[in-house]
Amino acid sequence: MILILKWTDYIVQMLLNENIISENDRAVYQYCVQTTLFQLLTYSCILLLAWYFDVVGVTLAYYAGFLPIRYVAGGYHASSHKHCFCMTIAIYAISLGICFQIIEDFKYYGILLLSFFKRGFSDMVKNHSDKAAELFC
Q1: CA–CA separation, 56 and 44 (whole Å)
Q2: Quick one: 49 exposed, middle or buried, by C-beta within 10 A (0-12, 13-18, 19+)?
Q3: Nearest one of 91, 59, 65 to 78, comparing CA atoms
Q4: Residue 6 half-sphere exposure toward CB, CA atoms < 13 A
């Protein structure tokens, strides 16, 4: 966290030295740069976790659906960046856990459902083929 604060001060001071921003805007830019750096840290940690647990594809799909909703709907605002980091990681972990549970449940119930339809479809085809054989033979 201290490193991010130092980077924030460095970036904002560089913007001031280059006359890109004015001293009046310093606080706004410090907040924006600090928030951006914390978000980069958070998403980098999530991608590292995804790589470690070999779920990068699932994580990218999760964020493809989650980020637009978060952008439009807003969400919970933590009282500090540290708390936001912890909550984001926790929500990610819980969401992936639920996702994998749904996938496992679908494997079980999906197989049952498909076998039910397969049996029903097989019986239907057999009945219709017997009727067709009676008509044309």
Answers
A1: 12
A2: middle
A3: 91
A4: 3
Asked if 62 and 95 touch (Cβ cutoff 8 Å), the reply is yes
- pLDDT tens profile 33-79: 998 999 899 999 999 999 998 989 888 988 888 888 877 887 778 88
With vertex at residue 47, the alpha carbon angle to CA 79 and CA 37, rounded to the nearest 5 degrees, is: 45
Digit-coded pLDDT (tens) for 95-115: 888 888 877 777 767 666 666
pTM (2 d.p.): 0.67
User: Contact 80/34 with Cβ under 8 angstroms?
Assistant: no
Q: Which two tokens stand for residue 105?
A: 């449940």
Tokens 């929500």 belong to: 91
Question: How far apart (Å, rounded) are the C-alpha atoms in residues 26 and 28?
Answer: 6
Whether 111 and 103 have beta carbons less than 8 Å apart is answered as: no
Residue 41 CB neighbours (<10 A):
15
What span, in angstroms and rounded, lies between the C-alpha atoms of 47 and 133?
60
CA atoms within 13 A on the CB side of 126: 6
